[in-house]
Amino acid sequence: MVGQYDENVLPDMLPVYYTRLFPQNLFCRWLSCGNSPQPLSNRELSFTLADDVYLRYLSINNQKEFFTLLQKKCPHKLDIGAVYNTKPSVGRHDAVVLARELVFDIDLTDYDEVRTCCQEAKVCDKCWKFMVVACEIINAALKDDFGFQSILWVFSGRRGIHCWISDYEARTLDSPGRAAVADYLCLIMGGENQSKKVHLGSDNLHSSIRRALIVIDKYFDDIVQDQEFLSTSDRLKSFLKMIPDEALRKQVQENLERMPTSSIDRWKCFVNNYNQFCKENLHGMRKMKYLIEEIKIQYCYPRLDVNVTKGFNHLLKSPFSIHPKTGKVSVVFKPDNAKDIKLDEIPTIYTLLDDSSSDNVQHQTNMRTAVKNFQELVFSLEKAEAVRRKTEANTSLEF
Amino acid sequence: MEFKIKRKSVKTVTTGSLVDVYPHDLQMYKIPPTDNISLQEFESLALERLTLLRCLATATTLKGLRIFSEEWTDFVISDLKNQGLKYYAKLCEKSGCGTLQPDLEARRKDHIAHFILRLAYCRTEELRRWFISRELELFKMRFMTMKTDAIDSFFKINNLCYTNISDDEKNELIKYLRESTFYHNNQNIENFKFYKVKFYEVLDLVKSRKVYLRGGYAYIPHKDFISVLSAQFRMLLRQSLAVACHHLGEIEQDERLVSLLKGLHQSYSGNDFISDTKVTVPIESLDFLSAKSFPLCMKQLHEHLRSAHHLKHGGRLQYGLYLKGIGVTLEDSLRFWREEFTKIMELDKFEKQYAYNIRYNYGKEGSKKNYTPFNCLKIINTNVGPGECHGCPYRHCDSGILKNKLKGYGLDAQAVNDVVDMAKKGHYQIACSKYFDAVNKTDLGLGINHPNQFFEESQKLLKGDIKIEVKKEEKSNIVKTESNNIEDMDFDEITEWKE
Ligand code: SF4
Ligand SMILES: [Zn+2]
Prior knowledge:
Largest sheet of chain B: 3 strands, antiparallel
Radius of gyration of chain A: 24 Å
EC number (chain A): 2.7.7.-
Number of domains of chain B: 3
Order of helices and strands of chain A: HHEEHEEEHEEHHHHHHHHEEHH
Shape of chain A: globular
Family (chain A): Belongs to the eukaryotic-type primase small subunit family.
Largest sheet of chain A: 5 strands, antiparallel
Number of helices of chain A: 14
CATH class of the largest domain in chain A: Alpha Beta
CATH topology of the largest domain in chain A: DNA primase, PRIM domain
CATH architecture of the largest domain in chain A: Alpha-Beta Complex
Oligomer: heterodimer
Bound molecules: iron/sulfur cluster, zinc ion
Strand order of the largest sheet of chain B: 3-5-4
CATH superfamily of the largest domain in chain A: DNA primase, PRIM domain
Shape of chain B: globular
Radius of gyration of chain B: 25 Å
Order of helices and strands of chain B: EHEHHHHHHHEHEEHHHHHHHHHHHHHHHH
Structural class of chain A: alpha+beta
GO molecular function (chain A): DNA-directed RNA polymerase activity; metal ion binding
Structural class of chain B: mainly alpha
Protein name (chain A): DNA primase
GO biological process, one term (chain A): DNA replication, synthesis of primer
Helix content of chain B: 55-70%
Distance between the termini of chain A: 62 Å
């Protein structure tokens, strides 16, 4: 368990972790590929030190320098920024951002209005399922729709996941392009004052939405049971607000209130109600054509922090860095395995460095798997980069 | 770009060659004109095009019409006719390849006028943005009114060759194409030809999920080529404005031109609500001021901040810049936010995480730009996420909630209904103006296009500035509307492609 460890020992443990366990070599290779054709040194790194001193515009020329820098500064937090046209430094305000991985940040705090098991910084295996759904949906869209290959998924260290796309096309995408990708993936919209946040209209459903719904359906019953969306009168109230038609809403309310509190049964009853209502009101169903889908999406679809994706030089926590509050490692995982992740099996710096810890063996294994996942991605990225450079050289010869 | 200005116009081009130069009503304006024209013609062409572009802006912002909708296009065309710009009306109504003298004349004017305005609008980033947005609207509108044969010849003339995907590929994908392509129910997708372009060539379609994507390619039918074209047109304009700006020096050797070009946009620049000379507003008076002089979007943020002692990023930005605009000093601003935030967090955390942003708003950090408060257009079009309460309440509130809010503020039933009705119809700014009248007890019917304008107008009323000159007041507002759009129309923003 994390709680029994003391943040104060971090300064002693971090140098050991960085030397023995942090995959420095892979890390530098991954970044180099992501920089190309710019040199590694043009990438901004940023460190947060023990007493919250914040260093920006750091850069490294090679792995050796990286090692020295880690030893010297021993950062509590390690973030990665953009690739500039020159070596980044504090004084250079004329530096231009040339590239940056396309990134996604999904955080469970953005699910606070739907999750009922935890709030704010808390997270448990129940709400982790939201992340599993998010990862599967986004990963499929990035691969199938946008054709991206080098997609890295990382546990954020506490209550969310990050995604880094290193394909050349993604790295060099301009900001309108990033904004368009983010908007394409964003279905939940609306603030505090809007109860229904998903509007799918009444035309055909876009293929990407259909695919997302298939993923949601795999987990939906589970999540409904875990979260009990409909079990208390407050939750029921906010659920009912999503039904735009008054007649249907009344009907559903009466029926559900009469039932036992099990959310899954209530949900099924609602679906029957809705279907019945559709049959009886063939007209006037236009605005509710996709009501079931809309509600499922509002409950389960990924909630992206779009500003992180749209921004070109947002700093984002590095893979394999340690979360200063939880001590957890930002492990790399495969999207297919997201569903098997158990939060307390995620290695922490404390258990990894403490042979006597009961979790030590298992955490070591999981750490090795995470490094292997990272390695696989870096290898295939390097291959793709080589191919790209070769074709580029060929085409430039031709002209 | 060369313009040789003569006192008297000399027609050097004959009809025969005009057909060659201007084969089509719709142009990409790739080559600058080399005609000799008189200063007089230069001036009138410039003013006429300016009228045309303003007319587009009016249709969207003042009339509140949905861009590219039928009503929108109708308004533009009839307004052009009313203003005596028949040739533009005709170019916009149905672009084609006619070869009659008036057709050719119109194209020549269109061509030259576009290039004149490039010179007038290349000087600052804001002017460029405004110009590009309007020219793009114009281009899209004209493309949309074109018949198929006119489109075909447009492609030929501009050397745009794309090959459609094979029938096999189409049949294999037809299910997805049908699901994901945006088309009208009365059209038969089986008859469409589909083309494959990279997804980043049609960002507006990607953004609104109106195209099928697979492996990085977008599959677009013929009609959606407007997306590819306007993306190219935008790029072209952007680059050529930069070039034009570089060469301004040479052109401005001619005194007459300098005053003309400068005058053109000066008649056009208005208040951007960067406050420096204005009175300062003490933060102690904000509660009082928010009752009558804050538009709902700001009142809502103010109240949320007071009750929850926190605002998310979008809210801090929208409200912070607004406060700056009404005359709250940086020192006061820091104090104001600090007092609220520290009710729920340590002072240390506030100073570390939030104070920077406030100084940033005032241009004291980061890129040190003096940021201007957001106008309505920007606020209305902003994305509001879960847990956030910025944006424009007429757009981002359920009508039930909006109704209760307004009732809670003591508006009478009639006024509440009027406002909510307008909001439901999508006329957010008109709803806002009705709210203005209700809380300030007048019937000015202002065109609200900036929250800071709302504030200033309300203050004027309270201090008794406005007497009987209501009409004049309205007029000056129209000018404001357009000029304020300049600075906030985001250069990189993709205007949504609604049909
Ligand atoms: S119309 Fe403008 S001023 Fe009025 S509430 Fe909306 S954004 Fe604010
Ligand atoms: Zn939980």
